[in-house]
Amino acid sequence: MFIPCAIGYGQIIVIVLVVILLFGGKKIPELMRGVGRGVKEFKDAVNKDYTAEETKSGQESAPKKEDE
């Protein structure tokens, strides 16, 4: 079965070589550091959103006590 969007090892090697040629060896670690920070910030934001949503849903589902 032919999958047109599949990337093989040959294409990955070509992409890596092009990136090295474009940015040079000194710039790549800085780029990867920036990507790592971006991924970390994204994960933190997602986790913060989930915890806020869980807290909100926990408050709504708590039974209300009526004073008698």
Automatic annotation (TrEMBL):
* Lineage top rank: taxon: Bacteria
Q: Where in the cell is it found?
A: Cell membrane
Q: Which residues cross the membrane?
A: 6-24
Q: Topology in the membrane?
A: Single-pass membrane protein
Q: What is this protein called?
A: Sec-independent protein translocase protein TatA
* Database matches in InterPro entries: TatA/B/E, TatA/E
Listed GO CC annotations: TAT protein transport complex
The alphabetical list of record keywords is: Cell membrane, Membrane, Protein transport, Translocation, Transmembrane, Transmembrane helix, Transport
Please describe what this protein does.
Part of the twin-arginine translocation (Tat) system that transports large folded proteins containing a characteristic twin-arginine motif in their signal peptide across membranes. TatA could form the protein-conducting channel of the Tat system.
Organism lineage string: Bacteria, Pseudomonadati, Bacteroidota, Bacteroidia, Bacteroidales
Q: A GO biological process this protein is involved in?
A: protein transport by the Tat complex
Quaternary structure (record):
Forms a complex with TatC.
Question: What does the sequence similarity comment in the record state about its family?
Answer: Belongs to the TatA/E family.
The record, for NCBIfam families, names: tatAE
Q: Which GO terms describe its molecular function?
A: protein transmembrane transporter activity
